[in-house]
Design goal:
By secondary structure, the chain is α+β, with helices and mostly antiparallel strands. It contains nine helices and 19 strands. The N terminus is likely disordered. The structure holds copper (II) ion. Copper (II) ion (CU) binds next to loops.
Length: 380
């Protein structure tokens, strides 16, 4: 495949917002130009005085060499662009349920997912044209099984182009099991969940960057058969980023493939929606141990998991459930990887969980774990 609809479709910009952008860009351009000139002037001046004694006549003009490096392409960001009533919209948004679902009984767990082209909200009032999961959006449903159970996966392609599904928890020939399914078709395959951990699943149809960026991912939790230490609360977080060709306010944005390749997201999220657990915190009681099953779906960026005001008591890193690290502060979860974190918090309060690569926090990959009922918050 040489092209795909995501990059072909670019909705026209609204004239007034285009004009505003141009004015802002012009303004910024002038400001940057002035700053650059001043910096250059100061630098050249310093260099001239430093070099004066040694080689006053042969020093080349600084300007030409310096200016040549300023060749970065301008990338228009829609980060943080939300409508005026964003707070209201954030409060009205129904947060993705992060609670780990129970393990179905029996030796075989049947999972049926339908892929569908759908508009979802990824930040308050910000809509995006996904290829996602019917009944869920992006991420798709959390699959929860016990090590040794067989997963019987049926994929129905309700979209308009071929899609597929790749389970990182499966040891299986990908050319057979992860093959493309045509629009309107269904396909089933089975695998035994023989390796415990938390794993990504995603569409593996080319270009994979576009299919993942458009929302085709989720998490499968494979509980070790001997179990893990008992905890009080278990939450699943799928970290991902969004690359948009518009602000998504007046009309849904679509994928900007150049931004995806340049790794310059407009929004980054836990479970598909910026800051949703800030407005609707996850909860625990004082003294509880809370387990986070975290997948970094990317498509490209890692997440650096950290709970502010706490230490991660146990950390099972990158799906290795055979041993855990103890009392660690921040753990990198690579794109395409997963990790499990237990954190015990004794004191009432609001504890942010973040990707500690702080650009992610700025772009929306932050939530709150509310311990007890801190003053000024609603009870749960
Ligand atoms: Cu796909």
């Amino acid at each position: 495949m040489t092209s795909h609809p995501a990059t072909a479709y670019r909705p026209p910009r609204k004239p007034e917002s285009g004009a505003l952008v141009k004015v802002v860009a012009l303004f910024l351009g002038i400001a940057v130009g002035i700053l650059a000139f001043l910096a250059l002037f100061m630098w050249a001046d310093a260099r001239d005085s430093r070099d004066a004694a040694a080689a006053p006549a042969s020093t080349p003009p600084a300007a030409a060499a310096h200016a040549d490096h300023n060749t970065a392409l301008p990338i228009e960001s829609f980060a943080g662009v939300v409508p005026k009533n964003a707070q209201e919209l954030a409060a009205a948004h129904k947060a993705y349920d992060a609670t780990l679902p129970p393990i179905p009984a029996g030796d075989v767990v049947k999972v049926h997912m339908t892929l569908k082209d759908m508009v979802v909200e990824i930040a308050p009032g910000v809509r995006y044209n996904t290829w996602a999961f019917d009944g869920h959006g992006a991420p798709g449903p959390v699959v929860h099984v016990r090590e040794g159970q067989t997963v019987e996966m049926t994929l129905t392609n309700g979209g308009s182009i071929p899609h597929s599904i790749d389970f990182h928890a499966a040891r299986i020939a990908p050319n057979v099991a992860f093959r493309d399914v045509m629009p309107g078709d269904s396909f089933s395959f089975k695998f035994t969940a023989g390796d415990p951990g938390v794993f990504m699943y995603h569409c593996g149809t080319k270009p994979v960057l576009a299919h993942i960026a458009n929302g085709m991912y989720g998490a499968i939790v494979v509980e070790p058969k001997e179990g893990l230490p008992a905890v009080d609360n278990e939450y699943v977080l799928v970290a991902s980023e969004w690359y948009m060709n518009g602000d998504g306010i007046d009309e849904p944005a679509s994928l900007d493939m150049a931004k995806a390749r340049a790794m310059t997201p407009d929004w980054t999220t836990f479970n598909g929606y910026a800051n949703q657990y800030v407005t609707h915190p996850l909860t625990a009681d004082p003294g509880d141990t809370t387990r986070f099953w975290v997948v970094a779906a990317g498509p490209t960026l890692d997440t650096n998991f950290h709970v502010v005001g706490a230490i991660l008591d146990r950390a099972w890193v990158d799906g290795d459930m055979s041993r855990h690290e103890s009392r660690v502060q921040t753990v990198a979860v690579p794109a395409g990887g997963g990790a499990v974190f237990d954190v015990r918090i004794a004191e009432t309060g609001l504890y942010p969980f973040v990707s500690h690569a702080f650009a992610h926090v700025d772009l929306g990959q932050v939530g709150l774990l509310k311990i007890g009922n801190p003053p000024g918050t609603m009870s749960h």
